[in-house]
Design brief:
Length: 418
């Protein structure tokens, strides 16, 4: 049966927003001098993605939605005063930050301290250049888009270290050094996890990974479940999200590298933290969840709506962990990266490389990928459990009911001692 609502190439068909931009660029190419239309194409793509996705997601999902959902998880209401249902709370917060005085310590390095927020913002914008929103909706469809994303996403570490060092505050410097150590520790298992997806799909192009998922009618999450788990944990650590926000541990180092920041300088860091989390969610939706495709549903529903839904679904995982899990200690976080995630990433890469060789010998038979998916799900659970046991995890020693003081080896009166 032929779908009745297949996307057309007419400019007013908003199911593929590339139609409208193509019509505008064709008209501009006849008026403007040569070469200008390429700059205009990038501007149109940026403005469209920012107005349709990034800005609404940051304000509604990242600020209001996150606070509202976490409030419900913790038996609170969340924002409910400003506007209907508290929907105007993000605007009120923005106005408050704009009015606040941006203080600078007298002994701080003023130039570096002012430049740090700007450098922190730029990569958050550049990351969206290679993420495909739809079939023809990507600003820069380069063949090495995955490498581009990893390279650009490493730049905020420099900005955070600049912010901590320039503040001339030991707590700021401690927080900045924690960011650097965390980035180094978690970047290795993160890259190993993504290498598993690259080896299986045979491409480092994000558009190519979406096409691979559509061709074999399976999402990478089913073929590489362990890679997705490693990716999520590593990204949470690099984004400094609770429960791994050791760089801003209020009980230890006040507010980390942001201790001396206030006003909109602090607001840029806070806003772009949400922007980076959304970009990481969009990247995960593209690599592991099939991007803008959904087993043929994209022929009926606009692909960019499917992509937005998947991105917000993955972002909900960040909200869920933030609202329910306690913060880890710095030593626990470092040990978990080097002793647990890194070996698991190596094991996973070894398994997927072997599967890729076997698959190539079978001329990439479509049915074999489903066998690999089933095997990898079982192996992932077994690997996690076995490696946890190897590192000392003993669930049988965990109490199943409250223990009395005597049973726990606590205080025992003198007369009752054996």
């Amino acid at each position: 049966m032929t779908p009745l609502f297949l996307t057309s190439d007419r400019w007013y068909d908003i199911r593929d927003l590339g139609n409208l931009s193509r019509a505008l660029l064709d008209a501009a190419d006849k008026i403007l001098p040569g070469g200008v239309v390429y700059v205009l194409a990038a501007l149109i793509g940026f403005v469209a993605s920012f107005l349709l996705f990034v800005l609404p997601s940051q304000l509604i999902i990242g600020v209001y939605g996150e606070r509202r959902i976490i409030g419900r998880m913790q038996s609170r209401l969340g924002p409910n005063r400003v506007g209907p249902f508290g929907l105007l709370q993000p605007i009120a917060d923005a106005i408050k930050l704009i009015q606040k005085e941006a203080l600078t310590p007298t002994q701080a390095d003023r130039v570096v301290m002012y430049i740090a927020p700007i450098i922190f913002v730029m990569p958050a914008v550049l990351l969206w250049a290679v993420i495909p929103f739809g079939e023809n909706m990507v600003i820069a469809d380069i063949p090495v888009s995955l490498m581009y994303f990893l390279a650009v996403s490493a730049l905020p570490v420099i900005a955070t270290f600049m912010a901590g060092w320039s503040s001339n505050n030991k707590y700021s410097l401690f927080g900045a050094m924690r960011i650097v150590s965390m980035a180094i520790s978690y970047e290795s298992p993160l890259v190993l996890a993504l290498l598993g997806a690259v080896v299986m799909s045979g491409t480092i192009s994000l558009s190519g990974m979406v096409a691979w998922a559509d061709e074999y009618t399976i999402w990478m999450v089913f073929v590489q479940p362990l890679a997705l788990v490693i990716y999520f944990i590593c990204v949470s650590a690099e984004l400094n999200r609770t429960p791994v926000d050791i760089a801003e541990a209020e009980s230890e180092i006040v507010a980390g590298y942001l201790t001396e920041y206030s006003g909109m300088k602090w607001g840029l860091f806070y806003g772009m933290d949400i922007g980076y989390a959304l970009a990481a969610s969009g990247f995960a939706a593209t690599v592991f969840l099939g991007g803008w495709t959904f087993f043929g549903l994209e022929e009926w529903v606009p692909g960019w709506l499917i992509f937005i839904a998947k991105t917000h679904l993955f972002y909900f995982l960040f909200i869920w962990t933030r609202g329910t899990l306690p913060r880890l200690r710095a030593d626990q976080l470092m040990a978990f990266a080097w002793k647990f995630l890194l070996p698991l990433g190596v094991f996973n890469l070894l398994i997927v490389s072997t599967e890729r060789m076997l698959w190539a010998e079978q001329d990439y038979a479509k049915g074999l990928i489903y066998v690999f998916a089933l095997v990898n799900i079982v192996l992932s659970v077994g690997l996690v459990y076995a490696w946890a046991r190897f590192n000392g995890y003993r669930p049988e020693r965990t109490p199943t009911r409250p223990r009395l003081v005597k049973q726990a080896g606590g205080y025992i009166p003198v007369g009752e001692r054996p």
